[in-house]
Amino acid sequence: MTPDDLALVDRFLDMMAAEAGASRHTLAAYRNDLERAAAGISGSLAEARPDDLARLGTQWAELASATVARRSAALRRFFGFLVDDGLRGDDPSAALPRPRFERPLPRILDEAEISRMFEAAEDRAASGEAMALRNLALLELLYGSGLRATELVSLPRGGVRSGQPFLILRGKGAKERMVPISSRATEAVQKWLDHVPGSSPWLFPSANKHLSRVRLFQIVRQMAADAGISPDRVSPHVLRHAFATHLLSGGADLRVLQSLLGHADIATTQIYTHVDSARLVELVNARHPLTDRSR
Question: Which end of the chain is less packed: N or C, by CB atoms within 10 Å?
Answer without folding.
Answer: C
